[in-house]
Amino acid sequence: MPISSEEEAFEIFDDISYGKGASLLRMLENYVGEEDFRRGLSNYLRKYSYSNASEDDLWGSIEEVSGKPVTRVMKVWVDKPGHPVIMVEDVGGGVVLRQSRFVLSGNTADTWPIPIVYRLNGAVNTVLMDRESITISGSSASLFLNVNGSGYYRVRYSDWSRALNNAANDFERWSVINDAYAHLLQGSIGLGEYLGLVRSLGGVVNYLLTTTVIMQLGTLYSIKPSSVKDVFIDYLRSQSKLLEGVSGMGDVRELVLSRRALVDEDYAKSIAGLVGDYQGLDPVMRQAVVNAYAVVGERPFETLRDLYRSLGTDEDRVRVLSAMLSIPSRDEYQKALDFLVSGEVKRQDLQYFTVGSRNPYVRDLNLKWLMSNYRRFIEAYGDPGVLSRLLTYSIPLIGIGQEDEVERFLNSLNLPGIEMGVRAGLELMRVYSRLFHNI
Description:
Blueprint: H1 6-12, H2 15-32, H3 34-47, H4 55-66, H5 70-79, E1 84-91, E2 94-101, E3 114-120, E4 123-129, E5 133-137, E6 154-156, H6 160-166, H7 170-186, H8 191-200, H9 207-223, H10 225-243, H11 250-263, H12 265-271, H13 283-296, H14 300-310, H15 314-324, H16 330-340, H17 353-357, H18 363-381, H19 384-398, H20 403-412, H21 419-438
Parallel strand pairs: 1-6
Antiparallel strand pairs: 1-2, 2-5, 3-4
Helix pairs in contact: 1-19, 2-3, 3-4, 4-5, 6-7, 7-8, 7-9, 9-10, 9-11, 10-11, 11-12, 11-13, 12-13, 13-15, 14-15, 14-16, 18-19, 19-21, 20-21
């Protein structure tokens, strides 16, 4: 990204800055092989120790030991924005792969030198796809295009269920559900097809898979609860049962139970009464219990506020604050918004407004609050980049059903350092709004 001001520097340190580099290195390692990647990296560190080095020096060191065109490939991936999607088509006796740039509003023509590691008939192969289309000999019946899910590209399969069956491990299952979700947002597959894949994964417990599916279903629930509620509850019940007594998965179990408490009213009613013994609860259960009380408890704001005031650790206060911002009752939720800026909540915890932005029952209240309080985020953090990221995360969901008002508000802001957040928030808002009307 070109940087022309200090404000722009603050704004670009986002998920892409931190995640894309790691993802590209993982793709490169899978392409050249772990041993050549390790040797190339070791040579690079030895050669440039106690001196300066550039990006091209790293690529050159790995290229030298692997014999593959690493510099040519990686230069494009680092410098070019976005990422490609590969469409899989059965044609005669082969499989045609076609690439374009993946965009949620509709793909556009573009090409990358894509290092594809694929599996066909049980054998793993590598091919560099550096043009719009290539043909692979054989049938797609046993094809899996992104071995270990390491490629920084999307795949659009002609048969998603078959692709999921062809996945050999949880990384690959994750890549299928992740690609399917992206295509659902794009509008190129239907909700029923995506939810069919979710049902197939209900009996699989894995950190990456479970957290990803919950995140996806949670977003869809925030967009339109009625469309996914039944499948979401079934998935969470299945995961809850499978996680019972499993060691080393406490954080996943906490996520499953806390989310279940928000959408499964029967479960919420069964545990909400435990809020009176909050301090005595297993930490894994604490978020679930306060979430449950937020959903089905009497006078949830007052009860949770009093609990918040009684707690001695920031970790527990944040749990309760998150529960307050998940209250579905409009009157009670408004009290939670007022509490957020009452002076009792630490300024650094203003960011938990993003939790409330996912609450599908109070979008108009959230928008009014944000319009009145957006400057507080810059004052609290001294960094317009924080407000930029807040707009990216919150506006897409808040804006559903009130798109024109959101656009007028954002376009009226004249604050340096939030332009990227405004653009990203508006773009994703349009995507979510379209999905809301189609599911």
